[in-house]
Amino acid sequence: AQSVAQPEDQVNVAEGNPLTVKCTYSVSGNPYLFWYVQYPNRGLQFLLKYITGDNLVKGSYGFEAEFNKSQTSFHLKKPSALVSDSALYFCAVRDRDDAGNMLTFGGGTRLMVKP
Amino acid sequence: NAGVTQTPKFQVLKTGQSMTLQCAQDMNHNSMYWYRQDPGMGLRLIYYSASEGTTDKGEVPNGYNVSRLNKREFSLRLESAAPSQTSVYFCASSQLDQPQHFGDGTRLSIL
Predict the structure, then answer these.
(1) How far apart are CA A30 and CA A93, in angstroms?
(2) What is the per-residue pLDDT for A53?
(3) Which is nearest to A72 in space by CA: A106, A25, A114, A108?
(4) Which of B43, B56, B97 sits opposite A105 (nearest CB)?
(5) Cα A3 from Cα B82, distance rounded (Å)
(6) Residues A14/A38/A35/A105 CA torsion (nearest 10 deg)
(7) Strand order in the sheet with B4-7
(8) pLDDT at A41 over 90
(9) Chain B contact for A105, CB < 8 A?
(10) Chain A neighbours among B 81-100 (CB < 8 Å)?
(11) Is residue B102 within 8 angstroms of chain A, CB to CB?
(12) Disulfide: which of A23, B7, B19, B58 matches A91 by Cβ 3.0-4.6 Å?
């Protein structure tokens, strides 16, 4: 069984400050890890993924995430937050050996960036 | 450049009514998925179809049925709606190992 935990329901940050949205995961095999963002009344949009290789993954809109195998974490980061980054963020995991490409999502973290 | 299209966008049902949620993708993806989104619970997989002609249960399949009509279309049916099925339903598609692409959802209320 696989699972994802996003320990913070909401993260508040001032515009221009760095942001971190936390994610830890559990999977029996090797993980594929994803971050998605959801704006109001829209579906999820892909931000970035970790498949293999470099532990630091760069994605859309200046976001990046660091894969840490020993801590089973995949935290989302951005050096300088924008008000337009305010949205709901989801971390997801799948087992690399799962042929069905089934994702397990965390409960989501709402990011609020204040001017 | 439509991507994944879901219809309807909103629906209100009475308990016991049936309805079908439609999903179509124009990206030639093999795999398609149905999720429900409830506050604080993220997205939970209801059913998925790894390829045309196959369907499998996900985490929360009870009360739902699906049909993979062809490679483009994957429908979700509620045979006898219950208030616990009030949710936002998302369809997604992907090619193996690639990120899933999501529709904008169907907001379903069951009274």
Answers:
(1) 10
(2) 86
(3) A25
(4) B43
(5) 27
(6) 120
(7) B4-7, B19-25, B74-78, B64-68
(8) no
(9) yes
(10) 90, 92, 94, 96-97, 99-100
(11) yes
(12) A23
